[in-house]
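Record 1 of the preview.
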Amino acid sequence: MAVLQHVEFEEPAGVADWAAGRGVARRIFHLYRDPTLPSLSDFDMMTVMGGPMSANDEVRFEWLGTEIALVRAAIAAGKTVVGICLGAQIIAKAMGARVYPGRAKEIGWFPVRRTAVSHPFFDGLPETFTPFHWHGETFDLPREATLLASSKITEKQAFAVGQHVLGLQFHMEATEESVHALLKAAAHEIGLGIFEQQPGTILAGLDRCASLRPLLYTVLDRLTGFAGKSTRRDLEVSLEAST
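->
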């Protein structure tokens, strides 16, 4: 698995834990200090992480246009591609969709609701669950995509393209460590908007990370063919935690 990391403080977190537990080899490309990207032949799965920049900042970040082209090529080649936050926006842009400022920033613990559409990635997950958010932009749904989840302020929270591509606007991979890292590096971005929780409120919700883990593992297992590793009890625990 190739991981494209855009800033030091947004590591793969729960995705790395999942990969370690499944024996999936991974290599992290730290684009903020070295713009070298993997070749298409170097990976079967690619995870595109978040970051404070925009998917439209191709002039500011010399590697961004090349990264978008790589994501486009990976999707066309049938590779497994996961995008988280900025990564989901990069997938959308790579597929020809528009990325633009959202109605408001969404920072903190806010519920998302699954759409009525059935899709193997999300089938059986709780109808509503509460992941971590940290974003100010959104995107149009790519023409080929299926919308999987929405929140009150952000319609496009999760989407799938076929059986190999998943975009998550929210942070299902959040761990206590990754949330602390985001707050340490970017708390200055938090304003007074109704969907911007203050650091104390965010830290008070850290116990939600434990309920996200089995959901993340279930989704990634289905995406990659490890579905037999996820147990029914995993989902039952998540359902209990979300009520």
